[in-house]
Structures are given as C-alpha cells and as structure tokens.
Design a protein that fits this description.
Elements: H1 8-22, H2 26-43, H3 54-58, H4 66-69, H5 79-89, E1 102-104, E2 113-114, E3 117-123, E4 126-130
Helix pairs in contact: 1-2, 1-5, 2-5
C-alpha cells in the first residue's frame, strides 16, 4: 500500500527526479533520493509544509531540488526508474535516507550539520540530513 497518494504521472515524475539527482550513484542512490522526496510529501514541517503531492514536492521553490532548478531534469523516466519510484512510494525505506528531508553533494566530507540538520549518513556522492523527531514526527 502506498504511503502517499499519487497518480501514474506522479510516479513518473518522482522517477525522473530520482534519475536526475542520483543516476550516477546507482539504484540505491536513486532509492535514497526517492525516500527523501516521499518524506517531504509526508512531513508537513519545516521547509516542507503544505506539500500534498509529488508534483508540489518536485517543483517546490524555493527549497526544491537542484536538478529541477538548474535544468538537468529533462530525461524521461525509464521502466527501471519507475519500478524504483514505486518501491519508495509503497513505503520501502533505505538508510541513510530513512528519515531524511535533505541531501546534497559536498566537494569533500559531509558536515555534521547542514542548515542546523543532523547528518544521517552518506552514500557515494550524497550526504543525507534528517530533522529531529520532535521537529518532524511524521517522517519517523
């Protein structure tokens, strides 16, 4: 069962985002980005209030994703990407993005905090950051 409601267009949009942000980090990297996106729709806290759909999450501005804002969000979702998107929409979670709302690609080591949020871990090129449970209980 899905943890967020969506349409087929929403699934494909999330798949495109996952590919654009983390294709170079492989399937697990893409799943981690997907977890972060689903968490943003679920959270209704901090920078992510009133995001009720995948579309609103993907195109949020300010606070959205670099791929969307810097123009490399143009590739169509492939069947393998859609399959990965369905996994995270169905509630599958992958560490370190289990509770993450943010990620970024630093030039060096992951800072222990990023804009006041705690480092949840790193996978390949991306560092993931999660809020405190008391700040965003819906992602825990």
């Amino acid at each position: 069962m899905a943890v967020i409601k969506t349409t087929e267009k929403g699934v494909k949009l999330l798949a495109r985002l996952m590919r654009a942000e983390a294709e170079g980090d492989g399937k697990l990297g893409m799943l981690l980005v997907g977890n972060t996106g689903v968490n943003r729709v679920l959270s209704n806290c901090l920078d992510f209030t009133n995001l009720g759909t995948i579309r609103e999450m993907v195109f949020q501005s300010p606070g959205g994703f670099e791929a969307v804002q810097k123009g490399y969000f143009y590739q169509a979702a492939r069947q393998q990407d859609i399959k990965l998107a369905r996994k995270v929409i169905s509630g599958k979670q992958y560490r370190p993005a289990t509770n993450a709302l943010w990620f970024f690609r630093p030039s060096g080591n992951c800072p222990s905090q990023w804009f006041g949020q705690l480092n949840a871990g790193r996978f390949k090129s991306h560092c993931f950051y999660a809020p405190l449970e008391s700040e965003c209980p819906r992602v825990y």
